[in-house]
Design goal:
365 residues; mainly alpha; 0% strand; disordered N terminus
């Protein structure tokens, strides 16, 4: 039998539908940016783009750090980001403009229409569209193994949406009042509240992931509940911004930070649970020679895993160590999924054996 040189989860061929969706979303995002460039001119667009992109490396690193034990496929992460930046932005603009036009025809004044668009239309429309990325990933249900995965995918969609949206906001401020206004807005959107969109949509991610990873009768109710939570947080922040009251903004910000702490708590709890289960399952594989006591101690500690990768890189085995750690983690998550979904023994073995083969190929120490 041919032994794979890379772990199965890394060698899976990408879905054609996923690639097509990624390309379409990316083109739509590019189209929006081109329109903004033409409308705002190179100077304003350049400044706005720099301000919108500046926080992204830190924000992306923060989101991806939540999923260090079992990193999600890069293509899926890119799809979620591009969906938020492209499809979600374009359709949100169209639907919000259409909704505001209906309010205007009903006789409401411009100020009222703008306020209703920000407080009601935008949260309802934008959260539905960003959350749609999670719903589309339901077909790839094996990639969502826990609530953390839902948070990561939702955050990527939120970051993509926010990046393109911020270009438009900064460009508008620049056009109306100049560089100073754009920089002031950046302080609010890019420094004080850069995680707004990811936090809102993460509630939908938690709902979708809960529905996929639980087996109780009411599990699918978590999806609309997560959506309502996302709409509430989004509307709360937008409503506070419309009032212009620092007290309202401070209160809304506090509520959003509580949600952020709760999301971090969810990921920390899941990580502790996964590490504990590794200590329970991996000793059963010691007889294969693929896992030793030292390996288990390394695999069940985030700092120890990081140290092992660093030492392996120094010895020219960095890729092998990363593959070994990921395959071992996937093996434990397979056990958890088998318990949850009651996988038949033959199917469990069919998914387990390639992971053991990947560990065998990677383990060179």
């Amino acid at each position: 039998m041919t032994v794979p040189t890379r772990s199965v989860m890394l060698a899976q061929r990408p879905s054609k539908a996923l690639i097509i969706a990624l390309v379409i979303s990316s083109l739509l995002a590019l189209g929006v940016l081109v329109v903004l460039l033409v409308a705002g001119g190179p100077a304003g667009f350049g400044l706005s783009a720099v301000l919108a992109v500046a926080p992204l490396p830190v924000l992306l690193a923060a989101v991806l750090s939540l999923d260090r034990l079992e990193p999600e496929p890069k293509l899926h992460l890119a799809f979620a980001f591009a969906w938020g930046a492209g499809v979600a932005v374009v359709i949100a603009i169209a639907l919000t403009v259409a909704g505001q036009a209906l309010f205007a025809r009903a006789g409401y004044g411009t100020q009222t229409v703008d306020a209703m668009g920000a407080v009601f239309l935008a949260p309802v429309i934008e959260e539905a569209l960003k959350g749609a990325a999670l719903v589309l990933l339901l077909r790839r249900r094996r990639e969502i193994d826990g609530l953390t995965d839902g948070i990561v995918y939702a955050s990527m969609a939120g970051l993509g949406f926010a990046a393109v949206e911020n270009v438009g906001y900064y460009l508008t401020a620049f056009g109306e009042e100049g560089v100073g206004a754009a920089l002031q807005l950046f302080v609010i959107r890019g420094l004080i509240d850069p995680l707004g969109h990811p936090i809102y949509t993460s509630l939908i991610g938690v709902g979708v992931a809960y529905a996929l990873t639980r087996r109780n009768a009411a599990r699918y109710a978590a999806i609309p509940l997560g959506y309502l939570g996302a709409v509430f947080l989004h509307g709360l922040w937008n409503g506070a911004a419309v009032t212009g009251s620092l007290a309202w903004l401070g209160g809304a910000y506090l509520v959003i930070m509580v949600a952020l702490v709760a999301l971090i708590g969810i990921t920390a709890r899941e990580r502790r649970h996964l590490v504990a289960r590794m200590g329970a399952y991996l000793p059963g594989y010691e007889r294969t020679g693929l896992v030793t006591d030292a390996d288990i101690r390394m695999l069940t500690s985030i700092p120890a895993r990081r140290t092992a990768r660093r030492q392996a890189r120094a010895a020219g085995l960095g890729r092998a160590m990363s593959d070994y750690q990921q395959a071992a983690t996937e093996l434990v998550m397979l056990h958890l999924r088998a318990e949850r979904e009651h996988l038949p023994p033959d199917r469990f073995a069919a998914e387990r054996d390639p992971l053991l083969n990947a560990m065998a190929v990677a383990r060179r120490w």
